[in-house]
Design a protein that fits this description.
The chain has helices at about 20-25, 30, 35-50, 55-80, 95-100, 125-150, 155-180. It is an all-alpha fold. Helix 3 (about 35-50) packs antiparallel against helix 4 (about 55-80), helix 4 (about 55-80) packs antiparallel against helix 7 (about 155-180) and helix 6 (about 125-150) runs antiparallel to helix 7 (about 155-180).
Length: about 260
Amino acid sequence: MDVFSHNKQLLHQVRVDGPNHTYAAMLQEQLGGPMGELTAGLQYIAQSFRVQDPAVRDLFLDIGAEEFSHMEMVAETINLLLGNQPRATEATVGTVEHHVLSGLSPMLSDTSGNPWTAAYVAVTGDIIADLLSNIAAEQRAKVVYEYLYRQINDKGVRETIDFLLNREEAHNALLREALNRMQDQGSNRDFGVTKDSRLYFDLSTPGRHFQSPQPTPPSFQNPRTGGQNIGPYQGEKAAPMGQRQYNPKDQEAPPH
């Protein structure tokens, strides 16, 4: 039976030096924003439903579950920053929602109060596109945490953000390793095989700074400084894009 379990111990303890309502609203971006932890957790888990490589599927589920623990850490930090008493009359523009809508509860919304939407979640059904999307998402989340880190002097908050920022880097490296493992799968197959893919259109003037491309499938250097990579996928290979049966019979395996 597949279940989720909740460990009451936070993945990393959070603390704050004192209330800061404005910064609590800023931190909402990483709770309910397009690059936040809720988006990341649901994206990895939704993508995992179609992944056939057992190691990569397990990786998506592991990271997705961890992103939910990050969401819990962000929410708890917002709780601490908001304090115990609603004071809407003292709230600044952009921070009032906590005081008049949620009773100081963290909200599934971004810094501007826009509610979270499933439109933030990217699922393509192609393992390469999903991995590249996830790698970019981890990089974007890292950038947002860097912006947040620079705008607070609270040592407790900085410790939490530093932990979360470094976990984004860990996920980024793991996803790059998974991409290398899936090199001949999905949309990476038959990559750059026609002359059209090797053309460069110099449409801005003056000058040209790049040569005509010689396309190869997206890949990364081994992100590990030591140890061994997991081996390549040995299961059924996905058909090239454009040649896939998008409605396979029930007894047939999904396309990757």
